[in-house]
């Protein structure tokens, strides 16, 4: 199997040429070439400039071709007008990558397109234009336009802004923080976030990743790479442009930013809101700071600072720990009943180091206390240094407790703050900053739970429903329809399992009376018009009609009112349904809309006219399962309305979760849906039911063969599930892997013979580590696939075979692996798995499938021949064969 990433030659070059290297003081070429010399670049370094014979004492070549050998990476600091010609030189001389430091300026789009076309024709990958460059301290690679010395470390920085790179590097130098890699993307016309994250996720020297984002070019690739990297490494992200300058609400976040927030939450990424938070998060990560739960206890020697911290925690949704009765009693004894003990815990202005020490020890014994914020104000009776030393001792003593400090003030606390920093205990100047750090870093661990979730239809009933819904939509598209009636909208929802009220349409008053009699009184009458989004606001709803005369009058009243208010609206008649009397019901609204970047988005808020602004809603990207639906509910302001209140019983949250999942399935399986609104969805103790709905569809599906191309996150591919029958009648199911398959996959590995393990991994492996099990079961279906062959034994699913592919380093082909349990190797399981895997890879458009097979594995090689793989000599090892099957082209 190939092991190197296709961008390895960019980030781990053996040779670098600086095009535009110069003796000119303060020129970009001189700065970059000097940085490479000073850093002691480990490979071959070349200066290129037709105007110089030498640069900084090194021979200077007039052109790339003059070097006389291929170069891995060219760093280009030449005028913009020469860029296209230089990229042509790169192609002719075998340069594999070009880092373009030169900026093309505003209006340079045409030049960028020409450069990219030239690079693709020449087989050259581009970073930039306008990139600050790249830095890999462990390789002596400082090919960046900066005068800052970058130290080594385990933190990677990836930024679209060169200015942000400079700011972070300057801060890092002052705070003694080192980097494993620094990558400035800038324009991202070619190499983008996705590929860089791919590389860093598997880079052994990188443990944490910081991102600065301006814009996203490909949401699917971006989300795919984020989710893949976040499964193994913490990602901290800062994005500019949080507010919509055209918003009617001054200072409000834009809808696109709220959607971006939801996407980052789903990706398991910690999003920070400013440069300060990014710095503090970076420093905390580098020091091993690990708050795993987003709740906090606060101890202070002043009521004001404690209240400030509590206010900020509640602003962020970080709960304050409810102290146990035992903890409160112990604290009461400590304080001598001079003040009420609660959270925040105010020790008083006279608190000394011993009082702090005892209070922290008491709090550490409370099982509910995971994170503790220690605040100190420089009172006359408190020695900041003594308290700092006590905290440092306790940090080593109480390993299960995450400590964070805030030493407020200046000169009086400077020495204490320095001691805490040296002991790698996070310390801040303001309570708000400390709380923000706890909230942000703990968000990484909250996000891991969401990353484990796979969503998508997993049952045959759901797939059958989506098939029926597709037929309904295709019928409407054939009629050149876009806006569906309430009856049609409910039919679509019903096909995905949503409980809906029965609706019938009447075109005139006479028909309305007969329909009402058929439905049964009392009834509700609503205007049926594709042009009216909010029927109530248009005067188009009448409730609790109890007789034919009332129906007759209501029909004329509704139609007359709507025509008077909206004379241009198309009126098809009225819809009639049973009057639903749910006195304990909560009216909610579920919406689906398309975001320009992330595709379909689901929102949840209160129903009716008062919930239009998105600040009252919560957002999530489909696909969703029940766990993800529960997370959406819990993050919505309406969540508190669902609980028991006085005589009002608690609403059925399970029914709401199921309704949200049904809407998610619809949004995933029907790419034609542009808008969907369920309003109201009534939820009470008896369940949930759709009272009204509206759907708008596009005239035609999206182009391309990927049925989920409209989504930023690939759903669980239930369409790949199939069964076949063995000769003895037993049934085998083949399906994609899920995270909950960890135990069966481990059992499958444990049951393999030593020979079977060696054939699969090509090395002696006695056990699968938890990390390997997670890697095998927590996959991104957009970029890799793992199929399991499963047989039911005693009501328990048993894995008897596994086939998987992953994206190869070239980014266009996939590498496969196959294993079948020893006792099942005579039943054709391997061939069935490989056939399904090949079909899947071909459907995704990958160029080829390839892999390495031990030359001694005759059985596997025979199967490869039967499946039309070419069997080739391995380029490096005689004990292996390299097998390749073209899938397209």
Automatic annotation (TrEMBL):
Residues 732-889 form the N-acetyltransferase domain. It comes from the Bacteria. Keywords: ATP-binding, Ligase, Nucleotide-binding, Transferase. CDD domains: NAT_SF. InterPro entries: Acyl-CoA_Synth/Transferase (IPR051538), Acyl_CoA_acyltransferase (IPR016181), ATP-grasp (IPR011761), ATP_grasp_subdomain_1 (IPR013815), CoA-bd (IPR003781), GNAT_dom (IPR000182), Ligase_CoA_dom (IPR043938), NAD(P)-bd_dom_sf (IPR036291). One of its GO terms (molecular function) is ATP binding. Residues 490-526 form the ATP-grasp domain. PANTHER family: 3-HYDROXYPROPIONATE--COA LIGASE [ADP-FORMING] (PTHR43334:SF1), ACETATE--COA LIGASE [ADP-FORMING] (PTHR43334). In the N-terminal section; belongs to the acetate CoA ligase alpha subunit family. This is GNAT family N-acetyltransferase.
